[in-house]
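Input record (one chain):
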Amino acid sequence: MQAAPGLPRQPSSSLQPPSSPPTTDHVASAAHPALASGDLATFLQPSFDAATYVSQLISGVDAQLDVARSAAQPPTPSAKLAVSPSGLLQPASPGSLPPSAQNAEASRTSLSLASPSAAAPTADAAAGSSKAQAAQRKREQDQEEVDLSLAISRLNLAIEELDRSISTQVTANAPALLQRTSRLATMQHGLEQTKQGVESLDIEVANLRRKVHDPFQRLTELQADLRVYDGAGELVAKAVKFVGLARRLETQMEALFAKKDGTATGKAAEADGEDAVVGLVHGRDLSRAALLIHEISDMLDSERPHGSDGLLALKLVQDVVPVVESARKTVVDYMEDMIVRGLRDLSPVMLASSLQTAFNLGTLPTLVKDLLDDLTEVVRERTAAALDLDAIARQLGLAIPSLEASNPSYSTYRGGRRRDDASARQQQQQAWSDALWKRLESLIVVEMGAVCSKVYLLEKVLKLKTDGETGVNFLAAALDVLGDKPSHTFWRTLAQCLEQQTGAAAARSPWVAQLLSSGIAAENTPGGVVMGGYMRLLRLLHEFFAKITVYTDVQYTQTHQSAETVILLRGLAPLEKGYVDKATWRVAEVLSQVVAPTRKTALDASREADGVVALVANAVDGVRSDPLLLRAVVDRCTALVEQYATRLDKVVAEDASAWLVDGRAVEASPSQTWNAALVRFSYALATGIAGVAAEQDAASASYAATRLHVAVDTIIGATRRVLLDPLVRAAEQTVAERMGKMHVQLASRGAVHQRGVSIDATSGASAYISDICDALAFLRDHILPIYPPQLRNSLAGAMAAAGAHCFLLHAGLLALPEQADKVKLRLATDMTELEFALTQLVGEAPKPSQGGKWDDDAGRTDVVGNMKLFRRTLFMDTHQVEEEAKGVKPNSVIAVALALHLVSRAGALDKVLAATAKPAKPSDAAVRSELVRSAMHSTTDLIGRLHPALTNASLDDETTRIVNTLLPSTSA
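The corresponding structure, as predicted from the sequence alone:
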């Protein structure tokens, strides 16, 4: 049984009968509830068709009967019935029967009305059947009737169930249906009113459309027509303007050609001034034509985006465009010709006219950039050609010379051809030198001078030229593309080319490198005449600078060097370095030998120093004409001198005998002699360099003079620090060590009774003074004579001042015993002996020092006068000492010595020494030595320590007053 078309399948397992029901009644009764519910679900479908359902049910029963007839065995219920796609029980389809049943399908019996064509074969088959078959059919017919009855009963049950369901639904939904009916009646009235409103609204909309929309549509159409008319009018206006510009351009070009033809006719009779005037007039016509061409081109360029609707779509415009392009080409050709003529003749009038034409065409920045590129390319090509060694070799037919001549063979030497080879080598070098310098002269002076004049003329015209209509400066417009001024580009390019080409030539040939830097010394000539050199190259550059001064503001003098010239010369820095090294190598060699740690030979100080000074002077004088090279040479020389000064401390003799001052020695030690030789060399070197600095002009060579003076100060400072100051300190230390014995030999109790032992038999002085005098005599006779005479007075004065100050301070700290007068007499005798020795050291009438910056005489004057003053005060009473103290400089060494002597007179010296001693509680001798050392370097610290001690020393009023006069408090 198949479901009706469009009926959805409702699967229901309850509609399937049991697989093997025992009896038909049992099947009907057992499957009744399930089948009824399944059929009810099918009947409730909205698309249920009862006729179709019944027809399908009957067809299923017929199919089952046919299968039952053809089966050999009685069919089982499970084989007769099947579940339809709709979930209802129906007979099995023929396809599911066994083969025997399918073969007997022709003889099956149907409950449906048979057609005449089908009934005839059945009757024929029945007539031929046997009696057994008739009985079998009887049984099958009975079974079919039972099945049909069962199907009809099921249908009745389903109809009853459907009727009950319909009744139930009607009963349940009747109130809601009535309510909906009333609502529909109410809504029908509202819908009629709404429909009437919508109809009236449609009428109003139609009226509005007729009044607004239709006129708007018409207005839109009219506006479109108006735009078309406006576009046509604008196109006509543009066409009129275009035609007018084209006619003006045609007229201008005719006038231009006419003037050019007239110029060409009388060209042979024109002078230079007339050429300029003709060029000016011609340039004005050309600039006007260029302005018209630029305006027409802008108009056409603005119309290109419009395509077929623009000005370019007009036939008359298309015919004129080739004419405009031809005119542009003609104007550009004339403009370029005028630029070439203007740069060639250095005519600012022609150049200005051509640049105005380029500005009117809108190509000024591009034109200037192209011109500058061409000029810089000329610089590169000419520089490379001038230093092309291969081209020179081909021109001369000679190979590039080498620095070292080949060693002659024995046969050459025996044959006497050695001189001929040297002559040939000399000729080769001379030929190469002449050719190379001739090329460089032509390059720098002639060719680069011409290019430089063109570049500066171009920049000058650009700077002065301004468009009359727009007010735009031509140089500002060109810089938007160039980025830098043409002159700066030229100088930078020239410097780079010279640096690259000279570097390449020098790298390829050492002979060329030496020729361009230090020069080549000619062989077999007296003095070795030098060919070439950096100075010759500088002379070419000076000539070049002088030539371009007419066109530029470039200056290269002793007082001022323009930035452009500095850029160019910095490009030749490698050649400059080679020249400077060659000019100063001997200075470096001598100075390095002097300070060489492994030097074994004696130093001829004056001669070697004078040689170095002469070398420095010659090097400086040789480059006086070039300020930058002078700076380089001076910097190199001063660097070498300063290097010598920094290395001086490494060669100073530092052994035990170097600073030993021994009165028993009969001569200076080798170390002392070496140190003195270093001092003589440094002094002579510094004096000579100072003389070289003085020879420099104050205005033109102030830098050289300043640098040389700085080098002199460096030498003096280093020599004083590592040689002179240690010598003075050694003498001071020797005197201080021996002076400490004064307190033992004079102030001790045993010393007063042993005069014969402690006094020198010859002079009557004490033993310590005799040792000091011997040491001073050794300095006078053996040490000072080996130092420069100009420094002896300064050294002697420093040593004498140190000895005198040391003696005065120790004398002030001398404790006076009960027999004070005897001690004072011995002290006066010792002082006289020391004064005599110091006088011999510095001379009876000291001459003014000639050391200049070498002198350091601060606080070392009136040495002998201070000693005489102290000797007088030894035997004065306190009142007389007060009168003498009024003429003493407060807080000086003599003031400290007098104050301590007065404290010793008052018997408070021990208390003062104890108060000023360090916390370590040293002995009295150590305290005295420490106080003397402190006062020798600076009295300020000692006075600061003495003031608290003197306050607590319980001195009498007169002594206190004198001490306060001599040592006034700094806080007060």
